[in-house]
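Friendly challenge for the regulars: who can give me the structure tokens for this chain first? No prize, just bragging rights.
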Amino acid sequence: MILPGISGSYILLVFGVYFFILNAVKGLLTLASKGVMPTGNLLYVSVFITAMIVGILGFSRVLSYLLREHEEVTLGVLVGLMIGCLRGIWPFQDAASGLATNVWPTASTAGVGGATATALAGFAVVAALTWWGIRSEREEGAEREGAEHEGA
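First reply, four minutes later:
Bragging rights claimed.
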């Protein structure tokens, strides 16, 4: 859940447990609101939350190490993973044969305008953050150089 473009819900869908966890949480909340202590649902949700916390803490350390020691390879794998996940979240699908198949949208496909606007907005945000990061690094570098010259 700490990888960009890959949500916890998507991971649960990939493993086939999304609806199980969703129903466990829903059952827990529904029964708890009626004053009943649903021990089965509470156990499932508790184990899930514990595993989620341990997984995030452990994976963040592994990811930090990999980025520090093998930055290029790690970034390549992460980009490949994100590109591979696009197939599952592609907004234009045809389910005529009973299976969801990704299709290329046409001008008459519903949602093309919204998807295009969202993609452009995402691109603009990434471009703006990249520009801002480069500018901040340059300013920090200039400040460090100025401090070094004053101390000399």
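The longest strand covers residues 93-94. The first helix runs from residue 8 to 15. Your move, everyone else.
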